[in-house]
Amino acid sequence: MTTTPQDLEAVAARAAAAAEPCAATTPVARARALVAVADAIADSSDELVEIAAAETGLTEVRLRGERARTTVQLRLFADVVLDGGYLDARIDVADDDFVLGRRPDVRRYLAPVGPVVNFAASNFPFAFSVAGGDTASALAAGCPVIVKGHSGHPLLSRRTAEIVAEALAGAGMPDGMFQLVTGQQEGIAILKDPRVMAGSFTGSIAAGRLLADVAAARPEPIPFFGELGSVNPVFVTQGALDERADEIAAGFVASVSGSAGQLCTKPGFVFVPSGHGLEPAIAAAAASVASHRLLNPRIAAAYSARRSEIVHAPGVRVVAEGIVRIDDDGQGWVTPTIVVVGAETLVAERDRLLDECFGPLSILVEYAAGTDLAGLVPMLFQGNLTATVHRGAAEEPAVLRDLVRVLAEHAGRVLFDGWPTGVAVTPAMQHGGPWPATTNDSSTSVGTAAIARFLRPVAYQGAPQALLPEPLRDANPWGVPQSIAGAGESIRWGASVS
């Protein structure tokens, strides 16, 4: 069932009414609420995993790991809230002797933007869905959250939303801090509502671009943080092959086939030196992978069509054919497909080969000795979430400097000697990148910096203490870090530079 227009209005009204009370919650209260949500999800793990497995076809092992990641994210943001550094509280004390004339008292911090709409993802029914990272970071910022549930796991979405809402209410959080809506057009309608102040999304380029355009076309445009498409190129040097060819082949197949390749960080293109000799090991590893159900019939049909297009493209040779079996319910069962092309062929056929294939398919790209890999990158790739380099221990860093520099310009995260799947939930993680990886390449949807998406800077000049927000008061009742520029300091600016 989709949310009715009357219910959408009520949802927007409750979220708007909750904005000020949510922003006013103390760090301790908000952190306890996030932990309460994490505890409630953990306590319901068996029930939620059973529902998720039935709706998505993902394995129990994968889902339990993802459930754990979801609760870890919530607990991580509880610590972020308690620390308070994310508020970036800055205080310029009034200064009659300021070098440019009298300076007034100016105080700046990051305030919650207000109600946020989070569009849940299909391929991460826990970690990027109802109680996922976008929800956790927005709640941590002090914003009411409206989740647009994904049609691929509706029962899980509803049950998770019930658990989250009950936990927040039990922790004393304001009514309207968290709500769920369903339906594609209903999601667009709530994004257009003038009471919504930001949006977040994980999914396809087409859907993400549509929603980003909706957010930008509003009479008062709002920020929209979409994670869209990524092919995550990998570059393997001869030195790396000489040291660990079998390890690279096994890691490659594992990364491509994990969760049936339905991961935004799956390596779509792996560049290897001509004469690499990896094909037997790759074929053997791929043949040992059991068939896995794709998320839903729509994704199965899209994968089957895209796979056929790639396999039958000029100059493509199949290393591991894989299978696609469609059952009576339209669900697709697959094993990995690996193909190989020359670098020249990829350049010539880039309009046909470069688009993302969402599923367990990847393309080996053979390059000749002396190939300018750094020069290939801008010819072939737009923005990506990740880019990876496998190198030998004895290789001179200077040889790879240009390649690494170019990859950093085209990706949000550059990895060395590993595989991009299995994103770590850590403070320093960057999960974003230039278009079309995301709609905003200065943001991340994983890691503690994700909270910044749902905050905006506000400065107070000459304000009395009683009218300042708590993080900017001299008494600092929330106990947050404050950066204070005292009177008389300006005359010494630059003096420490030799």
From TrEMBL:
Enumerate the spans annotated as Aldehyde dehydrogenase domain.
4-368
The cross-references to Pfam families, in alphabetical order and at most eight, read: Aldedh
Please name the CDD domains in this protein's record. Answer: ALDH_KGSADH
The lineage's top-level taxon is Bacteria
Please verify whether the record's keywords include Manganese. no
Q: Which Gene3D superfamilies match?
A: Aldehyde Dehydrogenase, Chain A, domain 1
Keywords per UniProt:
Oxidoreductase
Tell me which InterPro entries the record gives.
Ald_DH/histidinol_DH, Ald_DH_N, Aldehyde_DH_dom, Aldehyde_DH_Superfamily, ALDH_KGSADH
Please identify the protein, giving its name as recorded: Aldehyde dehydrogenase (NADP(+))
Q: What lineage, starting at the top, does this entry show?
A: Bacteria, Bacillati, Actinomycetota, Actinomycetes, Micrococcales
